[in-house]
Amino acid sequence: MASQTKPTSKLCVKCQRVLPLTEFYPNKQWVGQWYKDAWCKECADKLCTDKESLMQYCFENNRGWEDSYWDTAIKKAQYIVSTDPIYVKPHTSAKRRDAILSKTAVRQFFGLMNLNAFYKFEDHIGGDGVYIDMGQIQKEKKDKPETEEVKRTYNAKWGGNFSKQEIEKLEDTYAQYAEDFVLDNVNIRDYARKVAKASLNADIAEDRMRRGEISASEYKEAQKIFDDLSKSSNFAACRRQPGQASGLGSLGEIIMRLEIDKQLRENGFTFPEDDIDRIVHDFEHTYTACGIEGRL
């Protein structure tokens, strides 16, 4: 039996035209549509003009929807419309501005929706082949409580609202600092916690940058704050825990001395006397007996 070949075209359920597969956005898990959306790109562009119509598009194309996706698209769109001549025109009405911003955000959403961080497939078609009620799905999502991992509560020790996972990360980072440094007073311990929070913020910023939620410059700023805090004199003045430097000549000891004293000390090692040393001493006695000053 000859194997089934993948078609090169399919029907758009909106405009009812048969179009090449390239005219449809990729849909990574929709096997029944040859891993493509059910709407063609032209219909998506024409019919999606605001958040509500975009939600409908996602629903009918089995794409998971999160309000955070739209928020990210809006942020990107705001930078674009800030130089749009019609949007910035003083006499442009608020309604017109909202329409321009929404349409621009939709375009940004289409650019983001197939990134791994944003892509989420949800099968909204029931067993009878009919779409499940969109309103009911949205209500269930809204009523669903936050999971323990995502829910953030105020933590007095860390001075802010954090999730359980974030607290675990902060505690692990602080414990590592306690292993490496002597945190022997309140100020140093508070500073170590501040550095741990900066480390967490840098990690979060990196993740948000990869998902397209913030710019590279915003991530670099978070990373710079962590770098500045971790390299400041507050940490450099901390004594390292015993055993953290493996010897006076080790790289760890050299770094420790450079951090604290800004200079290297002389090596304090002494070596046992050997045959060469004894011969030198004998000659020194001879030099002294002959009235010659100095050492060999």
Overview of the molecule:
The protein has 296 residues and is mainly α. The chain folds into 2 domains: 9-135, no CATH class; 147-269, no CATH class. 50% of the residues lie in helices and 5% in strands. It has 11 helices and 4 strands. The strands form 2 sheets. A two-stranded antiparallel ribbon has the order 1-2. Strands 3-4 form a two-stranded antiparallel sheet. Strand 1 (9-11) and strand 2 (18-20) form a beta hairpin.
Task: Give short descriptive properties of this protein.
11 helices; mainly alpha; 296 residues; 5% strand
- Biggest sheet record: 2 strands, antiparallel
Relative helix content: 40-55%
Enumerate the strands of the largest sheet in spatial order, edge to edge or round the barrel: 1-2
- Uncertain parts: 245-251
Radius of gyration in whole Å, from Cα?
A: 33 Å
Count every beta strand, where a strand is a DSSP E run of 2 or more residues: 4
What is the terminal separation in angstroms? 98 Å
Structural class: mainly alpha
The total count of helices amounts to: 11
Q: How many separate domains make up the residues?
A: 2
Mean pLDDT: 77
The geometry reads as elongated
Quick take:
The chain has 296 residues and is mainly α. 50% of the residues lie in helices and 5% in strands.
Helix/strand layout:
Elements: E1 9-11, E2 18-20, H1 41-47, H2 51-60, H3 67-81, H4 94-112, H5 134-143, E3 152-155, E4 160-163, H6 164-180, H7 186-210, H8 216-230, H9 233-236, H10 251-261, H11 275-289
Antiparallel strand pairs: 1-2, 3-4
Helix pairs in contact: 3-4, 6-7, 7-8
